[in-house]
């Protein structure tokens, strides 16, 4: 187990290093002169004085060799200093932390909704594959996969806010503000969770130990609860971690439509405003956090399932 932990730590360190390089190079690969881009974002004018460009380049240390610039930026980042936003003049680390908290809340509630629906749907579908319930559940979940969030979100606003008047249409002002965007975000992962749960439970229910349990007099419900859930939930755990990592910065459409101050909206506005420090800080934080989440999920999977752990060791 210690060998596996060391391997994961080495992988995480290497990934962090690569991500830091990519984040640092954002202003250089985005096209144009990054110093000129900074001045244009500050003065709102496409034509800037060359003397001002040269002065700011020297002030920011961008006249130094690229590897020296990266070393300075990395040292500051390791101390928690991700720079100052061009758009609102606030420290990037504080803005990213607040946005990550919002996105993490939204993602957790969305995936909780998805699991609450997906696990019973997938389990009931697996009990009688090809039956009426299985067919209906498959049709509904496939529909949710096909329907885009940019259509579902306005429809939800029309129904729950304008027609029924039970939920706020936008903003982030309390628990009621979380429900509608979380429901919209939960539909697609719920569909995938249902399919994975169904496939896993079909394999589990056909295993010899399930047959043995039924032969001892346990009914199907008791067998599924006592013997099937633990093994059936493992593939969902891995998928859950992947969706959690993706939603932390990938729910741009929903956050913009519902005016939610999360990471997706933060990065969207950083692109619009050419806010390079915010793009760099947001990018590196999201990717590293995503790698950490998937690594922890992998370790939990190995801890829960001894067979997987043995496979890694050997």
UniProtKB/TrEMBL annotation:
PROSITE patterns: ABC_TM1 (PS50928)
Signal peptide: none
Record-stated family: Belongs to the binding-protein-dependent transport system permease family.
Localization, UniProt: Cell membrane
Membrane topology value: Multi-pass membrane protein
Transmembrane segments annotated in the record for this chain: 9-29, 99-119, 150-172, 236-258, 278-300
GO biological process: transmembrane transport
Domain of life of the native organism: Bacteria
One Pfam family hit: BPD_transp_1
UniProt KW keywords: Cell membrane, Membrane, Transmembrane, Transmembrane helix, Transport
Chain ranges of the ABC transmembrane type-1 domain: 100-297
InterPro entries: BPD_transp_1_N, MetI-like, MetI-like_sf
This protein's GO CC annotations: plasma membrane
Protein name, as recorded: Peptide/nickel transport system permease protein
Source organism (scientific name): Rhizobium multihospitium
């Amino acid at each position: 187990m210690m060998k596996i932990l060391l391997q994961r730590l080495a992988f995480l360190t290497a990934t962090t290093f690569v991500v830091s390089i990519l984040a640092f190079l954002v202003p250089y690969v985005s096209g144009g002169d990054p110093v000129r881009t900074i001045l244009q974002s500050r003065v709102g004018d496409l034509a800037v004085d060359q003397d001002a460009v040269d002065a700011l380049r020297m002030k920011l240390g961008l006249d130094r060799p690229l590897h020296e610039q990266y070393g300075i930026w990395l040292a500051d980042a390791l101390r928690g200093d991700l720079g100052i936003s061009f758009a609102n003049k606030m420290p990037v680390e504080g803005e990213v932390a607040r946005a990550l908290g919002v996105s993490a809340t939204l993602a957790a509630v969305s995936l909780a909704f998805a699991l609450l629906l997906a696990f019973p749907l997938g389990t009931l579908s697996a009990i009688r594959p090809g039956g009426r319930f299985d067919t209906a559940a498959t049709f509904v979940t496939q529909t949710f996969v096909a329907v885009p969030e940019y259509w579902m979100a306005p429809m939800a606003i029309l129904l729950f806010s304008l027609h029924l008047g039970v939920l706020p249409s936008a903003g982030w002002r309390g628990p009621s503000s979380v429900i509608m965007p979380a429901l919209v975000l939960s539909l697609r992962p719920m569909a995938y969770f249902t399919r994975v749960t169904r496939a896993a439970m079909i394999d589990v229910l056909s295993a010899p130990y399930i047959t043995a349990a039924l032969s001892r007099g346990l009914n199907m419900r008791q067998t599924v609860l006592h013997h099937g859930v633990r093994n059936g939930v493992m593939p969902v755990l891995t998928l859950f971690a992947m969706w959690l990592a993706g939603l932390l910065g990938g729910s741009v459409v929903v956050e913009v439509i519902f005016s939610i101050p999360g990471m997706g909206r933060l990065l969207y506005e950083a692109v619009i405003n050419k806010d390079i420090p915010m793009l760099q800080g947001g990018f590196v934080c999201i990717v590293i956090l995503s790698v950490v989440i998937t690594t922890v999920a992998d370790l939990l999977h190995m801890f829960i399932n001894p067979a997987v752990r043995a496979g890694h060791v050997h």
